[in-house]
Structures are given as structure tokens and as C-alpha cells.
Amino acid sequence: MKHQPAKFNGKTNPNLADQWMKGMERIFDAKRCLDMSRLAFMVYMLTREAEHWWASMKLVMEEKSTWEALKKFMFEYFLDSVRYG
Fold first, then answer.
1. What is the pLDDT of residues 37-49, one digit of tens each?
2. Three-class DSSP category at 46
3. Is the pLDDT of residue 32 over 90?
4. What whole-number distance in Å separates Cα of residue 10 and Cα of residue 54?
5. Over 5-63, what HEC string results?
6. Can you give the pLDDT at residue 83?
7. In angstroms, rounded to a whole number, what is the distance separating the alpha carbons of residues 53 and 84?
8. In terms of residue numbers, what domain contains 41?
């Protein structure tokens, strides 16, 4: 939180969303966060539509909710937001 990362509500264009994700990853890399910590913190930073979207995806994925899965699904979320936004 010291780096003041922005929350992500899902209402943005894919370029800004990609910048947000890369910014979060830079913080995680600098802090040498483990994948489970990355996942927990990234989920904490989701709000509104993005938070509801992740809750739905987590149910679909069951036990496969990992950092890599979140990154993959975030990419798909960005594509869907362009298609249907």
C-alpha cells in the first residue's frame, strides 16, 4: 500500500487496464511477492464490476484460482470489455 496502487473497477479501456496490471506486477516484483500474496492483493484491489467478475470466475475455476489464472482471466476480461463495453 506504500506504493499507493490504484484499485481496478473494470471500467476502463484495455490499454489503461493493461498499464494497471503491469504497474501492479512491478510492485510485486520489487517486493518479491509470492504468487499467493500477489493473488490475494490483486483480488483486494478489484472493486465493483471487476470484483463481481472475479467472484464469478473463481466459482467456475474452482480450485484453480492462482496468480497465473487471474492474469489470464484479466486479459480475457479486458477483451470482453472492449467487445461489450
1. 888 888 888 888 8
2. strand
3. yes
4. 10
5. CCCECCCCCHHHHHHHHHHHHHHHHHHCCCHHHHHHHHHHCECHHHHHHHHHHHHHHHH
6. 47
7. 14
8. 14-84
In three-state form (DSSP H/G/I as H, E/B as E, the rest C), the secondary structure along 62-85 is HHHCCHHHHHHHHHHHHHHHHHHC
Task: Determine, yes or no, domain membership for 5.
Answer: no
| Bridge partners, 8 (sequence order) | 46
Total number of domains constituting the chain: 1
Does residue 9 belong to any structural domain of this protein?
A: no
- What global pTM score does this model have? 0.66
Cell of 43: 483480488
Residue 4 lies in a domain: no
Question: Looking at the domain assignment, is residue 52 inside a domain?
Answer: yes
Q: Residue 31: count other Cβ atoms within 10 Å of its Cβ.
A: 13
